[in-house]
Amino acid sequence: MTRKSIARRILIAASLLDCAMRLFAMTEAPPDYIASLWLAQDGLPSETIQAFAQTPDHYLWIGTLRGLVRFDGYRFVHFDSDNISALKTDSIFCLKVTRDGALWIGTEGGGLIRYQNGAFRVFSANDGLTNNVVRAVYEDNAGNIWVGTDSGLFRFFGERFKRVDGSGMIPAMSVHAITGDSRGGIWVGGTALVYMDREGVRNYRLVRDISSLRVKSILETRDGSIWVGAVSGLYRLQTMGGFKHVDEVPGTVRVLRETSDGALWAGTIGNGLYVNRTGRFVRMNLMIGLSSNTVLNLYEDQEMNIWVGSQGGMLRLTKSSVSIYPLPGASDSDFGNVYQDRDGTLWICSNHLFHMKEGVLKPHTFPGLAGIKVRLLMRDEGGALWVGTDGKGVFHQSGNMWVNYLAKDGLGSNFPRAMIQTRDGSVWIGTDGGVSHWTPRGFKACDIGNGFQSVSVMALLEDHAGDIWMGTFQGLKHLQGDRFVGDVVTEAVGHDTVLALHEDRQGVLWIGTNRGLYRYKSGKFFLFTTNNGLVNNLIYSILENGDGDLWLGGPNGASLQSWKQLEEAANHRLRSVTPIYFASSLDAGSAEIFGSMQPAGAISRQGDVWFPSNKGLVHIAANRMERRGAFPLAIDRVVVDGREVSSHSQPIVLSPRSSRVEISYAPILLRSQAAMLFRTKLEGFDQEWRETSARRTAEFDNLAPGHYVFRVEAWEAGQSESKSVASLEFVQKAYFYRRPWFLFFCGGLLAALAWGAYRFRIQRIKMRFRLVLEERSRLAREMHDTVLQGCTNVSALLEAASSMEAADPVSADEMVDLARTQVRTTIGEARQAIWDLRRSELPGEDIVRSLQRIADQMNSNAEVPILCEVTGKQFPIEPSALQELLMITREALHNSVMHGQPREIVLRADFSDESLVIQVCDDGHGFDCAGMGQDSGPHFGIQGMKERARRIGAIFSVSSRIGVGTQVGIEISRKRASSGAALRDV
């Protein structure tokens, strides 16, 4: 190949490229809509989207070939024949929401389904709908439901359908479209085109051969025009009554829609999407990134998003203040730069250089710099341009000539990143190899060492004092005069990557880094991060608008931040800032904004903001910035220990075994949710709100029993005054042993036990005291009944012996002998009593013989006849009870002998099946029983007998009459006498 042919080919290629660039420059500005596409990998069950509808709760319902889908703008919920029994087939052809909020679902083969109040109901042949392929559902002004099928037009009466075609003026037809007009009439299209009103029915012809007529859609626009989409194309009703074909839209017109801005949209089969805004149709396929030329449905929701259903997924078109000016080759570039010239025009550096003037973007090549890739530009005070290149150093315009400065001329590197001109007219150039200082006399050496490991300089700034600030990959450098200084500013930034520098009109220094935004003023530092409300910690650019507020550029978008909020937050008067966020990652076709070279953005004189990106020039129109209102916020899922529970009825009651609660919440917002912010709080658990921007699920483990209210707030970044709220109330039940009643019961029980223990202790003390008293009383009784009585007898015998000694010595001796015997007996009884104190059981003895022995002894001592009478069948008596009974009997006999002066004493023992009764009766002079209960001083007898009777549970009684005699009785039950129960109770 000759040099001439090579040169010719190069010339042709350059010409073609120039033509292409000029053609690009002549294309109209980007549309007002930002497109977002959803495919199967994004959660759609099928990429063939046939229908849309929006219910009053703001959910978007989507009909696909593989089921019904509910969409909240973020998450898809799928309904199909596998999880909904009413869906006999998964192909959803049409959707309609009626005034009562019901969603009508037309299927291809599964009949008509109504979804209302959470329940699905199928209408089929049993309900009068004789064809199961439903193509259209319409509600007229009177609230009547019309249904079009492959075989017939039906009207809903009550809960049944009635077919209305095939009779009279309406021919039997397959129906694909039904709509009403402003005059109250109804248009029906399919294999025929029919208009019905009060005056009757009229048939229309779109084509000569009526058998080839296939109407797909019908629409009346706000100007009263009737449009019909058919297999044969688009038609418009003329004033003369006929339809005229619209040649601008070729092919089958499947769907027609008029949006709220008055635009008419037409979706076609195989030819894409057309829109008519100005009286002519324009094809929108490439402008919006349509993924398929077969458009099956169009829908505008309440937020004025336009949804396009095609065979290539679901497309959302959203009006936005953010738009993209595509730049050829931008996606292949690793840098981008926007510079605003003195005349207000913009220079855009990417793989190619572009110049925007009066909104028109054109490619530009400087004479003498053809083929050189431009990285950045700057115009100095003299009007000369400085052009930084990608590997070719810096070009300085001098008249009509360009002076090229390279590394060999003193430039730090041939890859410049930032340029500024200072007040003295010199130029500072930051490069990948350090910073260079140019003066009219040439480059001046500038050593950026002093510990800096990286010499790549990405940002330059001259402050109000004339100091130079340099941002590098590993920190900030401060030049005062001719020397670099280390101060509180450079130390605070440390080794952070500094990407942007700006000094505002108040003299505040702002430093954009990879860790956030630094603010320095009057010796005080403050670091703003996402924890303080920033959208992103990576700050590529800092721009100040006419109001003094700051635009912060980041990788996924830009935010407008109030200077006043930043000031208040830095002075700790505000906890966090609330920027207005403009996301480029979703709203601008996944554009990523470029940084690391300055200037990385510009603000036009009109206030519009421009940023470079990998998809082109990102434009934020300040005059179209809108304040959006609140939106529905739903708690759509509650999972307890892996099991989903209904949240419709509140409060939700959780069992004591519940250990984990997961609450999912979602804003029902069909526009982009990229700037969505949330904060949650569980009242009864959290002290403060928890802020989050990513997670849409709150999880709680091992909650204490109690009443809780989960609250969530959602808002779009920068619009915190328009918060949406939702709440969920639930109760975590406690195990019975942790419930209040049980705790109160346990507290009461403990109190009762404590009181019982106290009472028991007091009773024990009293019992011990009583036992001591009883023991003392028993000892007193024993002494009284044994020693004292014996001594009394001895004393009486000795007195008698003394008085008889002179008169009757023999009798006196006998009395002395009896006294000796009585002394021995008394000593024996005393020993026996002492022995009884040391043993727990007394030996058994026959009570009858014992009573007889006591009677005989008393008789011999007192010479008073004592008769002993025993009746009934004797039964055994427990030794302790026997001892007490004998002591009582002995005391009673002794008292009768000593005090009653009886002529005769009778001792009776009466045994019965229930008890033993012992009576001692005398015929002595008796006594007055009225004073028997009073203290008798030394006369201990009756009191002792009572205590002994009480000790064994016996009934003691005394009756006496003066001059008649005395009767002492003891009655003890057989059970107590045999078991000694009374003694054991004590």
Strand order of the largest sheet: 59-65-64-61-62
Proportion of residues in extended strands:
35-45%
By DSSP, the count of extended strands is 70
CATH class of the largest domain: Mainly Beta
Mean pLDDT: 85
Which percent range fits the helix content?
10-25%
Structural class: alpha+beta
Please state the overall shape, judged from the principal axes of the Cα atoms.
elongated
Domain unit count: 5
Which value, in Å, is the CA radius of gyration? 57 Å
What is the strand and helix layout of this fold?
Blueprint: H1 3-26, E1 33-38, E2 49-54, E3 60-64, E4 67-71, E5 76-79, E6 92-97, E7 103-107, E8 112-116, E9 119-123, E10 134-139, E11 145-149, E12 152-157, E13 160-163, E14 175-180, E15 186-190, E16 193-197, E17 200-204, E18 215-220, E19 226-230, E20 233-237, E21 243-246, E22 252-258, E23 264-269, E24 273-276, E25 281-283, H2 285-288, E26 295-300, E27 306-310, E28 313-319, E29 322-325, E30 337-340, E31 346-349, E32 353-357, E33 360-363, E34 374-379, E35 385-389, E36 394-398, E37 401-405, E38 416-421, E39 427-431, E40 434-439, E41 442-444, E42 457-462, E43 468-472, E44 475-480, E45 483-485, H3 488-493, E46 498-503, E47 509-513, E48 517-521, E49 524-528, E50 541-544, E51 550-554, E52 557-561, H4 563-570, E53 580-583, H5 584-587, E54 602-603, E55 609-613, E56 616-620, E57 633-640, E58 643-645, E59 652-654, E60 660-667, E61 676-683, E62 690-692, E63 697-701, E64 706-716, E65 724-732, H6 740-804, H7 809-837, H8 847-862, E66 866-871, H9 879-900, E67 905-911, E68 915-922, H10 941-951, E69 955-961, E70 965-973, ...
Parallel strand pairs: 59-65, 66-67
Antiparallel strand pairs: 1-28, 2-3, 3-4, 4-5, 6-7, 7-8, 8-9, 10-11, 11-12, 12-13, 14-15, 15-16, 16-17, 18-19, 19-20, 20-21, 22-23, 23-24, 24-25, 26-27, 27-28, 29-56, 30-31, 31-32, 32-33, 34-35, 35-36, 36-37, 38-39, 39-40, 40-41, 42-43, 43-44, 44-45, 46-47, 47-48, 48-49, 50-51, 51-52, 52-53, ...
Helix pairs in contact: 6-7, 6-10, 8-9, 9-10
Domain Two component regulator three Y: 676-730
GO molecular function: phosphorelay sensor kinase activity; protein dimerization activity
Pfam families: HisKA_3 (PF07730), Reg_prop (PF07494), Y_Y_Y (PF07495)
